[in-house]
Amino acid sequence: MLVLLFTVVIAGCYGNGVEVDYQDPDNQRFIYDVRLNHEHDIHKRSPSQPLKIHLYFDSSINRLPLEHQRLIKGKVHDAVAFWEDTLMVYPTSANILLNRRCKTDTVRYYDGVRYCSDGCATETRCGDIRVPTSHLRSCEWYDRIGNEYYSPPDTMPGVNASFILYVAALSSDKCSWQKTVAFAAHCQQEQQLDRPVAGYFSICPRSVSTSIHKHEELLYTIKHEILHALGFTAGLYAFYRDKWGRPLTERDRLTGKPLVFDRNAGMYMWSDRVVKQFSRYNWKLKGRTIEKKVNMIITPNVVREVRAHFQCDTLEGGELEDQGGINGTAVTHWEKRVFENEFMTGTYTQNPVISRISLALMEDTGWYSVKYSNAKTLEWGKNLGCDFATKSCYEWMETKLSKNEDIHPFCIEATRGQPVTDCSRNRKAVAICNLSEFNKNLPSQYQYFSSIPGVPYSETGRFGGSVALADYCPYLQEFVWKQDSDFIRGSRCALVQNTLEPSQNYLLEKYSPRSKCFNHASGWALRQCNNIFTPHSGSGCYEYSCSSETGLTIYVMEREYRCYYPGQMLTIQYTDHQWLYLGNITCPSCVEICQDQGVQCPPMDRSVYRVHQEPTYRVPCSEAINLSAKYCFSLSMTTIFICLLLSIEKFDLYFL
Ligand SMILES: *[C@@H]1O[C@H](CO)[C@@H](O)[C@H](O)[C@H]1NC(C)=O
Ligand SMILES: *[C@@H]1O[C@H](CO)[C@@H](O)[C@H](O)[C@H]1NC(C)=O
Ligand SMILES: CC(=O)N[C@H]1CO[C@H](CO)[C@@H](O)[C@@H]1O
Ligand SMILES: [Zn+2]
């Protein structure tokens, strides 16, 4: 019976009779050497077969509320469809059968086939998820006593795909750590090129929100996590290959694994042909200069893309995150200060963009070819040059300020009390400078301010941008309004769902695809009887139009306000019979707003400017004051999502 069922392997396809023992350094968290039937001689081919991801939903998903299940499954399918359309792999002709976990950590190779030295474990997991037997190869094992190799024929169908993604909703202890929302990793790699062929994605059950304002965040979180499992992770850097399939990190001649395993980090160490450390000797801080070490991805496609993005021909590579710990955030993400809203930075902040730079990294794994047309433009840092990409934000801001230039993308408006909003640089959203006050001094290498209006010198060390991973550099962020911990609206102008109730629309805003963010010239006020209410202000979303005859026109409550020159102040008066609204908007230049729509702006001539005659309204005085809303103000940012709140509890309501 035994002999019939178990065939003894005599020779493999690249057999030379070599027998090697391999001691798994990591308790088989990763399982190697999955045999794929690659079409012959992959080195002569290119990754030309669209990536096909097989989804397997763990039973933990079915324990979520139905609405959450539907949402997550829908977004996982969308994210998978995106990567299937974007990445291609070397063609394979047979189904994937994953390797089994071994009973002990000793694996023996014979003719390149992996045998468990003491038999196979009863179950195999990918992360915490149990792999169904139908995905597994039969147990290939080595009998030490009888010195025999057993390789029973496979009875399971396996999976017709190039990657298996196990999806779960497990509340593991990772979920409580830094309010993580989701996590992912690869778990098995194939034998010929080490490409990951299986991985998992797990969402923390408590972090699921069905609020429509969180849908984009959820989708990008899933896309982000899947990319970790497909290759963008420090644990796989040591396995990257050049475009000819040659390892970029030296391998052990016998086991084929990278030479050095770092037990503290729990991963194989990469060579400096993948990630290289550079010194920034003149890293300027408030009152001193230090040496800062940066780790950079220096593979060819990444280098080409970052140089083109920043317009810096000497940039060494793509800078990696240095905060957050090596098996969490550091090294496995792009540096937040340099790449802010690129979706492979370590926290979600706003408006995620999948840029050519992350796709270039996938190409540089040696496992994929990529469809660059699926990338979107990253505006952060674009064309800002070597100074932006290689110097501290302190030096960037200081240099710009001394030349009286715009310090974007950073900002220095600190708010104590009522926040003043601004517009994001592309005017697509209302934004706020995230410079905030911490309850103690920041680490000295992140202290940038020696004077802040209204703040005594001894307290300036407590001020910094709210995003730690961005080195506490302050910058403008989109944000989310909250009411009683529910997300009620975002700040992006084009989204109709951000529209306010008329009774709460203190700034007479309109959210629509025809809207952009415009700055206010000064504070707004609402008057009723003897009361004045001053809402937070600074900027708002308003509809506008462009024409080559009349230039830029802004609309407030359907009324037209024409901009004759940049800097002109539009005076707004409006009444809804409960309140008299008094406000103002500053005109940007017509060219800034209208040129990219192909509109030739008329010359701006102050002499043609006529004062817009506003109707005169009486201050209404009838009903009781009705200020219903109590908003919280939150910028959404996380390791994957932490929401810090600033409540605007104190409506400034004055009685005359
Ligand atoms: C896998 O599926 C594709 C179609 O999606 C089919 O052409 C191919 O023959 C299948 N491969 C195997 C090994 O069944
Ligand atoms: C890294 O992960 C290992 C095990 O996975 C854990 O024991 C260790 O504490 C982690 N180290 C850090 C710095 O997070
Ligand atoms: C994460 C976050 O919300 N951070 C801060 C950003 O900046 C404002 C002030 O402008 C703070 O109040 C926020 O707390
Ligand atoms: Zn990540």
Characterize the structure shown.
By secondary structure, the protein is of the alpha+beta class. Helix content is 16%, strand content 27%. The strands form twelve sheets. Strands 2-13-14-12-4 form a five-stranded mixed β-sheet. A five-stranded antiparallel β-sheet has the order 34-35-29-30-38, with no helix packed on it. A hairpin with a 2-residue loop joins β17 (275-285) and β18 (288-297). It is elongated, with a radius of gyration of 29 Å. The N and C termini lie far apart (98 Å). It binds 2-acetamido-2-deoxy-beta-D-glucopyranose (3 copies) and zinc ion. One 2-acetamido-2-deoxy-beta-D-glucopyranose (NAG) binds at residues 266, 325-328.
Number of helices: 13
Q: Give the termini separation.
A: 98 Å
Helical fraction equals 10-25%
- Structural class comes to alpha+beta
Global Rg = 29 Å
Arrangement of strands in the largest sheet: 2-13-14-12-4
Shape: elongated
| pLDDT averaged residue by residue | 86
Which range does the strand content fall in? Answer: 25-35%
Distinct small-molecule ligands in the complex: 2-acetamido-2-deoxy-beta-D-glucopyranose, zinc ion
